[in-house]
Amino acid sequence: MNPETVDTISSYWDTNFWRLFLPIDMGGNRYSWSPIMIITATFLWNTFSPATVYFIFTSLHVASFATVAYTFTRSLLFTAVLGFMVSLSTSLNYGMVYGMASTIHLFLAFAAITAFVSIRYLTHASTSYKWVAGLVLSWIFLALCFEFWVNLAIPTILSAILIHVWARRTDHADLRKRSAIVALSVFGVLLVYIAARLQFAGQHVMHGHENEMVFSYDHLLLAVEDMFINYLTYLHMVITSILPGFLSFSPSYTYIGPETILAGQNGYHSLKTDLVIFSHLTSWRFLAGAYCVGFLMLSYRILISAFSSRSANALIPLVFVIIVLAGFVTYIPIKMRPMHLTAMLGYKAIISSSGFLILIAWLFYTAPAWAKSEFIRKAFIIVLPCFVVLAAFTRPAVERAGLEAVGLGSVSDPFWWLGDPAPEPVQEPASGPAQEPNP
Fold first, then answer.
1. Which tens digit of pLDDT belongs to each residue from 280-320?
2. What angle do CA 163, 168, 170 make, to 5 degrees?
3. What is the pLDDT of residue 102?
4. Residue range 208-260, pLDDT digits in tens
5. Secondary structure element (H or E) that encloses residue 25, with its range
6. Residues 197 and 151: beta-carbon distance below 8 Å
7. Cα torsion through 137, 142, 143, 144, rounded to 10
8. How far apart are the C-alpha atoms of 127 and 248, rounded to whole Å?
9. Does residue 131 come out as left (phi exceeding 0), alpha (psi in the -120 to 50 range) or beta?
10. Beta strand pairing status for 31-32 and 24-25?
11. Element (H, E) at 235
12. In whole angstroms, what is the distance from residue 51 CA to residue 128 CA?
């Protein structure tokens, strides 16, 4: 999708390898500082086929989540449910079209390692400097993997602060100290990273750029409204990541199509029939409002439950709630763009989506403790896997329709993309230069 980026990386790989450790212009004055990810991915892409690399990435993603889950819970049930949900997750489907997004699978595997070190430090009494050094080094390593790490660092700092407050209220002196060290360590790495990254932040102030921020607006009202819409849009993408496609986007637009919808109007108000299509494209916002309110109510209940308990286990779902609510904050101040009209770029909220999957798996695992009735427990056990499977099979069609509507291509048969098909031959016109093939 970005041949200019591929050419730049290939050039550095062959002649100036050291340059890969510095911020790289990914095209359009958009810089990325992800040396570990770029070097690892380029090596694999130069060694194996696209399909093999993709399966390496996804396998490491699932295996790392399952390994960390079992290490801390020793529960095959929790591990199996989480592995099942991560395996069928659709949040990274756009990686089939936008190749760099597929590397997020590998980033999440690295993030699981960092999470392991952080959780291990928090849950054990040892305050050895070796563990503190490992904590800092693991976050530095993650910071050099992928810029998405900021979306994990911020909820981690917020979670550590809340744990610190809880520990003070309940007289858990060791936990209070360790949570403070975690918050300060991650915050320190974040400050250094931002100071370096600000030297290459031109895309955020460039007029008309995809990443232009709301601060360039002349009216505060526009900035506030954009950020509000962005927040609900991303939260909607996270919550619907395990829901069947027809519960997140217009089934009519997906399965019938705009031409049939317009034909059904029989020519009524022909000058404005485009608004009928617009109605179908934006109908998901009604559902987004309901889903977001429902999740915020659940979050409030989990918060109250955690601070009403003296058991540290009550903090576990609260941490995942914070990850869900704050795992996409770097995208909130970016101007509302047409590409978000249909809310299909789930990879941008992948940190929150991962936290959401873990939260749901945890609620599934602990259902006997919190579900007051046998009916609720059985319904949860039956409905959840059904929804996950239905989402895996129905969301690709929804995403294809939604992405095509905003001009971002389609999520087609994954194996077609992974097969690295040859481009269509360029047709030489009767006169004039050769035309570029349809991307």
1. 999 999 999 999 999 999 999 999 999 999 998 999 999 99
2. 95
3. 80
4. 777 788 998 999 999 999 999 999 999 999 999 999 999 999 999 999 999 99
5. strand 24-25
6. no
7. 100
8. 46
9. alpha
10. antiparallel
11. helix 220-239
12. 43
CB 88, CB 388: distance < 8 Å? yes
Q: Nearest 5°: CA angle at 338, between 337 and 342?
A: 110
Determine the pLDDT at residue 261: 92
Strand, coil or helix: 279: helix
Instruction: Give rounded-to-5 percent helix, strand, coil for the chain.
Output: 75, 0, 25
Plot region of 434 (φ>0 → left; ψ -120 to 50 → alpha; else → beta): beta
Query: Could you give the 3-state DSSP secondary structure of residue 334?
Result: strand
Q: What average pLDDT does the segment 318-335 reach?
A: 95
Q: What is the dihedral of CA 204, 208, 211, 215, to 10 degrees?
A: 50
Residue from 105, 111, 103, 181 nearest 143 by CA: 111
Those residues whose C-beta lies under 8 Å from the C-beta of residue 87, and which sit 6 or more positions away, are 62
At 32, give phi and psi (nearest 5°).
Answer: -130, 135
Give the total residue count for the chain: 439
Phi, psi (rounded to 5 degrees) for 334: -85, 140
**Could you give phi then psi for residue 360, rounded to 5 degrees?**
-65, -40
Q: How far apart are CA 86 and CA 80, in angstroms?
A: 10
Per-residue pLDDT, 422: 46
At residue 417, the pLDDT reads 55
Query: What CA–CA distance (Å, rounded) separates 288 from 77?
Result: 31
Quote the tokens at residue 11. Answer: 């050039």
* Separation of alpha carbons 321 and 319, rounded Å: 5
Q: Which long-range contacts (CB under 8 A, 24 or more apart) does 224-232 make?
A: 226/335, 226/336, 227/332, 227/333, 229/336, 230/331, 230/332, 230/333, 230/334, 230/336, 230/340, 231/332, 232/285, 232/288, 232/289, 232/292
pLDDT at 115 over 60: yes
Chain mean pLDDT for the chain: 87
Tell me how crowded residue 366 is: count the other CB atoms within 10 A of its CB.
15
CA distance 422 to 2: 16
pLDDT class for 416, splitting at 50, 70, 90? low
In this predicted structure, the answer to whether residue 425 has a pLDDT above a threshold of 70 is no
* CA 239 to mean position of chain CA atoms: 11
Q: Could you give the C-alpha distances from 273 to 235, 252, 259, in angstroms and in order?
A: 30, 16, 11
Cβ atoms of residues 197 and 191 within 8 Å: no
CA distance 38 to 9: 8
Q: Tell me the residue type at 156.
A: T
